[in-house]
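sanity check this record:

:::
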Amino acid sequence: MRRKVLDVAEVAFQARGYHASSLGDLMAAAGVSGGALHHHFPTKKALALAVIDERVAAAVEETWIAPVRQAASAREGVRAVFEAVAAELERQGFVRGCPLNNLAHELSLADPEFRIALAGIFAAWRQAIADKVRADQQEGREQGTDPGHFAVVAVAAYSGAMSMAKTAQDAGPLRDCLVAFERSASQAASSQGDPRVRRRRRVLPRFGSI
């Protein structure tokens, strides 16, 4: 039952927002009584914090952190995530936005506990990217790259692009960022004599044409 309530709340907060989702609506959608809901989540705030900690953090882990850690390099990981998300948005035909970004816009100034919980997810996201850059540097790549700066730019670019994509209902901003990262990767590879630069340059027209 707890999982069902979290499922319903996660979807509602993403689609309508926290403030527009009443406990009555959530109970009806989950098919639970008020007593059952309050047994697991004494307040709406407690439910929202659980969604942030258990669902939003997991979404960032699955969409961003794990793919970046598993990628051949930080730049390849970032490129792959932008491509995967853009392709998925184009497949589904609508954009609800980034769950973390949506709640951050709505709740960061509403309550310090919300802000701290959301900031922690952003921090873990940036840390994973920065750590991957440091791993690249140990292998002789990205010698002129500041890991923290690269991570902030990647996260900020994605968050901003997702907000724009949600407003326009178009994955175009993500594609534009992807082109920019491709060019940045090509320039970085050129400066380090990476033979893969030619392959990356060849794919630019495909991404840029969308």
Summary: The two ends are 43 Å apart (CA to CA). The mean pLDDT is 89.
